[in-house]
Amino acid sequence: MQSSVFHRLFLLLPLAYQHTSNDADHKVTHWNYEYHGTNWGGTCQSGVEQSPIQLAYEKAYTVPLPRIVFKNYDVRLKEPLMLINNGHSVHMDIPETQNGNRPYITGGLLKGRYQAEGFHFHWGSPTTRGSEHSINKRRFDVEMHIVHRNVRYNDLKEALKHADGVAVLGIMFKIVKNPDRTYPGLNKVFAATSNVVRYESESEISGSISVGQLLGDLDTRNFFTYKGSLTTPDCNEAVTWTVFSQILPIPFGHVAKLWRIRDSSGHSLINNFRLTQPLNGRSVFYRTPIDGTKGK
After folding, report:
1. How far apart are CA 223 and CA 219, in angstroms?
2. Residue 296 domain-assigned?
3. 224 inside domain
4. 229-265 pLDDT tens trace
5. Cα distance between residue 254 and residue 264, in whole Å
6. CATH of residue 66
7. Residue 22 has what pLDDT?
8. What's the number of domains the chain is made of?
9. Cβ contacts of residue 250 below 8 Å, gap of 6+?
10. 126 is in which domain, residue-wise?
11. Residue 261 is assigned to a structural domain of this protein
């Protein structure tokens, strides 16, 4: 199956030990998570607006930003939906919906419309938590990223060249013994995860889902938002981040499936997170409801 532009960008080259020079402009080609990004070169090393970061309520500017508006998030996507092990994560491209439209978001710090391109996960291990961002110095078991492209640019490759090119939603999950809710969309995704243990393997997700089903009953009113970068090479500083403050419960069995994923060398793909980066004077905003109502 031919991969989309987003898959090719996220995959880059097969996972291998990174080879870099001392030149800060040297592009990262081969990379892994052995040192959690501390040995990546290029923009990852020289950038000043890098992600992820430590988020904290008391250090963020609390402002009445517009809420994130989700369009076509509740419409089921066209099948087949393929989950792929790209050596760095498990990933799915987001196609158009069954009515021929594309899911997109507006609001928050975003100026314009951002179309959903794909989603993937970052996780830890049986002994470590794997979220990339932290909230009040606390990290969580899994962080899901839903990547969006500014529609003013033709594709993600072009969008990554611009400061307003990309928007990423960050959703945190924590393992609980008996979750008090279920997520039909995520359940289908994690069911397929068992079939993508090997590098470059792919599995069709059973039936169809909407992008909104990935969010479950997430309260989308409250979130952190800031200007940052991709958390994978080349760490392009083209991302407006929206990280929701509500932490969703997830069963142990779902996360355990991620711990079994293998990289291109056949090793366990665990702890696939980048360490938090310096803020370097950036402003982080925390959105609270303007009118006290809940909405997605």
Report:
1. 9
2. no
3. yes
4. 999 999 999 999 999 999 999 999 999 999 999 999 9
5. 22
6. 3.10.200.10
7. 34
8. 1
9. 141, 142, 173, 174, 175, 176, 179, 186
10. 5-287
11. yes
